[in-house]
Amino acid sequence: MAIGSVFNNAVEGYNRASQGIEKASAEISRASIDQQDDAQLAQQRQLQAARPDEAVTPPVSQPARIDESLVNLKVEEFNAKANINSIQTADEVLGTLIDIKV
Fold it and tell me: What is each CA distance from 25 to 61, 69, 91, in whole angstroms?
């Protein structure tokens, strides 16, 4: 396998990991905003209740999946680190080959 293809594959892998990190970060942000909105809505309903003995139920919505997003974020971090190691190794091998030929 050529050093250039290893280097290119590692760069592509790093770019994919970077995109995955951005996606997971956006999901975490969206989930935390959704949780804040749900809490504020429930608080507003509580304040608007006509009688204090009325039961106020929180709005029904999809539960925020912050846990999955955090796991995805960590997986993409490991992917990025692995690809960085591949880039560094390809660089070292290429430097060694150049030193041998000169």
Answer: 21, 7, 30
